[in-house]
Predict the structure.
Amino acid sequence: MKKLSKTIASLAIATLLVACGGAEKKAEENTTEENSMEESVEVMDFMIDPSASNVVWAGNVLGVYTHTGSVAVSKGMLTIEGEEVKSGNFTADLTTMTPTDENYNPEEGKSKEKLVGHLSSPDFFMVDSFPTASFEVISHDVANKTITGILTVRGQSNEETVNDVKVDLVGKTASGKLTFNRKKYDVAFTHPAKDVVISDDVELGINLKM
């Protein structure tokens, strides 16, 4: 009887050891598979297509109207791993500034050409001396759809945040929205009329084609 009990106990221990060994092996296989999946995420470099990319802008005369327009993107690149933009940059050509709103009255001397001339002057972006603006990616928070980076305008650089970031690898596009305070970049013009206030905020819509 004692012999039988010992035999049963030995079989039980052996079965338990085999089961544990199998579980450990399965856990190791799962870990290896997960690591393999992580390692298989491809890092891809994309050049920006200037012909299909732009930055749209909006500036408000508070309580009166909003001027909108676009500038061309002259160059750029993005390095993407999975859904994350690991690094990248783009340059906007301010000499291509094109108004798109209809808040003009040429008879009163308010034309699109006059606006572009004023925005290009030292009052605003001083385009003769600083014909481009640029953005350099620092980090991408995929969960919150934000990218932090360095914006350079008129020779001044500050850290800014791009919101509502969308990266579409199928359509090969990347987009986002950035609002910056123009006075941080020495774009400090104030309207001479006391009842006309120009917003300090400039709103940008970034549209990049890869």
Notes: Confidence is low (pLDDT under 50) at residues 1-20. The two ends are 79 Å apart (CA to CA). The beta strands are 43-47, 54-61, 65-81, 84-99, 132-141, 146-153, 156-168, 173-181, 198-209.
